[in-house]
Write a structure and sequence with these properties.
Distance between the termini: 41 Å
Protein name: tRNA-dihydrouridine(20/20a) synthase
EC number: 1.3.1.91
GO molecular function: flavin adenine dinucleotide binding; FMN binding; tRNA binding; tRNA-dihydrouridine20 synthase activity; tRNA-dihydrouridine20a synthase activity
CATH topology of the largest domain: TIM Barrel
CATH architecture of the largest domain: Alpha-Beta Barrel
Number of strands: 11
Radius of gyration: 20 Å
Keywords: Flavoprotein, FMN, NADP, Oxidoreductase, RNA-binding, tRNA processing, tRNA-binding
InterPro entries: Aldolase_TIM, DUS-like_FMN-bd, DusA, tRNA_hU_synthase_CS
CATH superfamily of the largest domain: Aldolase class I
Largest sheet: 8 strands, parallel, barrel
Structural class: alpha/beta
Mean pLDDT: 94
Helix content: 40-55%
Low-confidence stretches: 322-326
CATH class of the largest domain: Alpha Beta
């Protein structure tokens, strides 16, 4: 895939952990995957390895950071580069109350000069790309000049990759879930950014759930980022991988199951419960006859408690047999 940000999987809190990223990598061998947002405090004062460890197969993989102190972000970015991440991404789009209390996430869009200082500090600290994920506005503001000036300030600081979630962030009155659905999508704003900053990589995020629509967006933008669609219909990643580069082989379901069994075996041997590895696979068979049985088996607490990776193969067999082979 010639465009490095052509197909990206969004950072989703409590979703895109290392097991999910390994799974998504199998489905789309050339996609770029992102970690959950990790706060600078968690890395600098907590268990850094727990947040940063990943499998080599995940490359290219980006670390998304949450924070607003340039020095702390620079130090956290250094840790990320040392761990082997291919990109450091700054979260300027999360609208949750927890993030607001920490004065970062989407509320940073109101302080572009501070964000520029953060970007410069990280760029000075690492050699990998420093990128920014942001919204197109805050609350009920719809003036294009707001996001244009935000991007322009970061452009002057040297940032050249912007992941644009084409909705406003409503900081008061809407939950994070509602913020993904209620503020209207305004793809035209992202298109205007693409026109006004032609030397930048503009990746579109938000509301992309169908292959045809995603393909159309790929003709207008440098890349697309899928969030919930990748979680609820994972095989969309494979379909888009094939659209972008048919020469890249995509494993069939059986090959994915076998690879995930081998991976699960390694993780269980390290003390990781099988349920963590199986969780991102629950909707893998969405739309396939027998998918309900697949999901039931991979959600069954008693079966998962055995920590036997063979459960994945058994659930796959139940698709065609119509009953569990246990």
């Amino acid at each position: 895939m010639a465009r490095p940000w052509a197909l990206c999987v969004a950072p989703l809190l409590d979703v895109t952990d290392r097991h999910c990223r390994f799974f998504h990598r199998l489905l789309a061998p050339a996609a770029r995957v992102y970690t959950e947002m990790v706060t600078t405090g968690a890395l600098l004062y907590g268990d850094a390895a727990r947040h940063l460890d990943f499998s080599e197969e995940e490359h290219p993989v980006a670390l998304q950071l949450g924070g607003s102190e340039p020095a702390d972000l620079a130090q956290a970015a250094k840790l990320g580069e040392r761990w082997g991440y291919d990109e450091i991404n700054l979260n300027c789009g999360c609208p949750s109350e927890r993030v607001q209390k920490g004065a970062f996430g989407a509320c940073l869009m109101a302080e572009p000069k501070l964000v520029a200082d953060c970007v410069r500090a990280m760029q000075d600290a690492v050699s990998v790309p420093v990128t920014v994920k942001h919204r197109i506005g805050l609350d009920d503001g719809v003036a294009y000049g707001f996001v244009r000036d935000f991007v322009g300030t970061l452009h002057a600081a040297g940032c050249r990759v912007f992941i644009v979630h084409a909705r406003n962030a409503v900081l008061k009155g809407l939950s994070p879930k509602e913020n993904r659905d209620i503020p209207p999508l305004r793809y035209d704003v992202a298109l205007q950014l693409k026109a006004d900053f032609p030397d930048c990589t503009i990746v579109l995020n938000g509301g992309i759930v169908e292959v045809d629509a995603a393909t159309a967006h790929l003709a207008a933008f440098d890349g697309i980022m899928l969030g919930r669609a990748a979680w609820h219909q994972p095989r969309i990643l494979s379909a888009l991988q094939q659209v972008l580069d048919p020469s890249v082989p995509v494993p069939d379901d059986e090959a994915v199951i076998e690879a995930m069994m081998a991976y699960a075996g390694r993780q269980v041997a390290r003390g990781v419960p099988l349920r963590f590895v199986a969780r991102p696979m629950l909707d893998m068979m969405s739309g396939v006859p027998g998918a309900r049985r697949w999901r039931q088996m991979l959600s069954d607490a008693a079966l998962l408690a055995r920590n036997e990776p063979e459960l994945l193969r058994q659930a796959f067999g139940a698709l065609s047999l119509g009953q569990a082979r246990i």
